[in-house]
Write a structure and sequence with these properties.
This protein has 243 residues and is of the alpha/beta class. 44% of the residues lie in helices and 15% in strands.
Length: 243
């Protein structure tokens, strides 16, 4: 009899190999031009400075220990300040944030073996995602990578105002699945946000040592380490037998 009912996954750096850059000047040129098409008169330099300033301001003003920003609110503030006529368009901020993310992306693809392994694991376990990020970006990117079909749902930090390692991120998923912490395993690529975070929520952890994330954090000890995603079934089997 299986001890685990569900496997929870981080997204970027765990199932999706993605590279984006918010330091690229071209990103702000493209996004500023898009905004100008909609009556928002802002230069690329102004947009870059305001984006980072508003990001910092949101997190500074938050009462959360691990605050998350809201990218749609950032672009709404830009529109309110630089485009009086455009401020009446309720969908423009979300669209601008989407253009911004698309322009920042250099590549996005599943890690080797992810599609095959998730296909196999879905036959025996319920699968869900728990990830830091913005819903405007995370959910479309899962579709782009062809991975959305594997997950019942995705808990994304931008929807809640706090991010991992806050244990509430994991608890939200457990509540939605209606299972206890000992009935789930979390798979992630960051020792602090993923391993340390899910341990505080009472979950077993599998650390995927990918090309992204923090690979060490004092006090964070995963229950199993994999170096290739194809090793995941063996890791879960080991935890089933030894938990």
């Amino acid at each position: 009899m299986k001890k685990f009912k569900a496997l929870l996954f981080d997204i970027n750096g765990t199932v999706s190999n993605i590279y984006t850059s918010e330091s690229d000047e071209e990103l702000y040129r493209v996004t500023a031009n898009f905004l100008k098409f909609h009556g928002v008169q802002i230069s690329p330099g102004e947009l870059k400075a305001l984006y980072f300033d508003l990001n910092r301001q949101q997190r500074h003003e938050s009462s959360e220990q691990f605050p998350e920003f809201d990218v749609e609110k950032i672009f709404q503030s830009v529109i309110d300040e630089y485009g009086a006529d455009a401020a009446c368009d309720p969908g423009l901020a979300a669209l601008a944030a989407t253009v911004f993310r698309a322009a920042s992306m250099y590549f996005l693809e599943p890690y080797t073996g992810v599609t095959e392994v998730l296909t196999m694991m879905k036959k025996s376990y319920r699968l869900a995602a728990v990830s830091d990020g913005q819903s405007l970006w995370a959910r479309p990117e899962l579709r782009m990578a062809g991975l959305d079909k594997f997950f019942e749902f995705a808990i994304v930090s931008g929807d809640h105002g706090f991010r991992k390692p806050d244990k509430r991120m994991f608890e939200l998923a457990l509540k939605k699945l209606e299972i206890a912490p000992h009935e789930a395993v979390y798979v992630g690529n960051d020792m602090y946000r993923d391993v340390f975070g899910c341990k505080n929520a009472g979950l077993k952890s599998i650390f995927f040592k990918s090309n992204q994330g923090e690979h060490a954090f004092a006090g964070a000890e995963p229950d199993y380490i994999i170096y290739n995603f194809n090793e995941l079934p063996r890791a879960v089997e080991f935890l089933e037998q030894n938990s």
